[in-house]
Design goal:
It is built from 14 helices and 11 strands. 46% of the residues lie in helices and 13% in strands. It is of the alpha/beta class and 329 residues long. The strands form 2 sheets. Strands 3, 4, 5, 6, 7, 8, 9, 10 and 11 form a 9-stranded parallel sheet that branches. A two-stranded antiparallel ribbon has the order 1-2.
């Protein structure tokens, strides 16, 4: 079981917030394969304040997917507060603050991973958001190993960590790369293990730590959970187009045999259901283009990857989508 403040999650495997991907259809598919908790796409605080749920499908939720979290990104404490309050009003069960995004344009606007270099602002955001949320809504934070590999960055990391704990953060997700690394190199799970040991040593064993980075197979998930001592795993890029990784990871963590890879028939069934959910949310025309990004990821499991990937990139309508399934699945 994974505890996120007042929330108890049945399995220690969750779906991370994924920009451009983790919309309601993806989250529903993830839950069908066992994800214990899901995050919607990373949401810009200004967008949440300006656009109502009725006008945007980006943070659509329904009664079937609780508990569900919203991850916020921004630069100004007051904007964070207003956006967090709105998301709770819209029905999300948890607020997560993104201090980790390494995208260049995000950093240039002093958002996401930039805040790893600015402990004062980071802690002020945490303090003000925590005070604004109704009890017992959990507040969590997404961090990276640091802004870079400098000693100064390491000092700032622990300053932010301590400030978050002092202001009521109940859980952290830590990605084992620095902001400057983006997705290059390998995720440093030794660092993540050190943070878990630090929390225990400081008497914060009640603080949940979730590890993230390079979780692409069930075997790796099991090894990382065991060797790092973290409380849970956040699956990110590894589950885009491969929701079966949730099922496989949960099986291996439960000391059960890993299920066989999905047959083409099962892949077709899941892809078709994913498209149906997307069309239901966005309409068929928009779903056809929105789902291209998922199609090229699903294609990785197909024995004719290159041809199937190419076919998905040319989809422009529901008829095109069905044609790909008829021809290749």
């Amino acid at each position: 079981m994974l505890r996120l403040g007042s929330l108890e999650i049945a399995v220690p495997v969750i779906q991370a917030a994924l920009s451009g991907y983790s919309d309601a259809p993806m989250r529903k598919i993830a839950r069908q394969f066992g994800a214990g908790f899901t995050f919607c796409e990373v949401l810009l605080d200004q967008f949440v304040i300006a656009v109502s749920k009725r006008k945007s499908r980006l943070y659509f939720t329904d009664s079937e997917e609780h508990p569900c979290g919203a991850q916020l990104m921004g630069s100004e404490p007051e904007q964070f507060v207003r956006a967090a309050q709105r998301l709770i009003d819209e029905g999300f069960d948890l607020i997560d603050l993104n201090f980790a995004c390494p995208v260049k344009k995000v950093l240039g606007r002093k958002r996401g991973g930039y805040l790893m270099s600015d402990p004062k602002t980071s802690i002020e955001i945490v303090e003000r958001v925590r005070k604004s949320l109704p009890f017992p809504t959990p507040l969590t934070v997404k961090l990276r190993k640091g802004f870079d590999d400098s000693p100064e960055s390491a000092v700032k990391f622990y300053e932010i960590l301590k400030g978050c704990i002092e202001n009521g953060v109940c859980a952290f997700t830590i990605h084992g790369r620095t902001v400057k690394q983006r997705y290059e190199g390998v995720s440093d799970w030794d660092f993540i293990r050190n943070i878990k040991e630090y929390l225990i040593g400081k008497g914060h064993s009640d603080i949940t730590l979730i590890g993230s980075g390079d979780l692409f197979t069930a075997e790796v998930c099991k090894e990382r959970l065991a060797s790092s001592g973290v409380d849970g795993l956040a699956l990110a890029r590894g589950v885009i187009g491969n929701p079966w990784l949730f099922r496989e990871s949960i099986a291996v963590l439960s000391e059960q045999p890993i299920p066989l890879p999905p047959s083409l028939q099962e892949q077709r069934s899941v892809i078709a259901e994913h498209f149906r959910l997307s069309a239901e949310l966005y309409g068929e025309k928009r779903a056809a283009t929105t789902m291209r990004a998922f199609g090229v990821k699903y294609a990785k499991l197909h024995p004719d990857y290159e041809e199937v990937r190419s076919a998905f990139t040319h989809v422009k309508s529901a008829a095109d989508w069905n044609q790909v399934l008829e021809e290749w699945y």
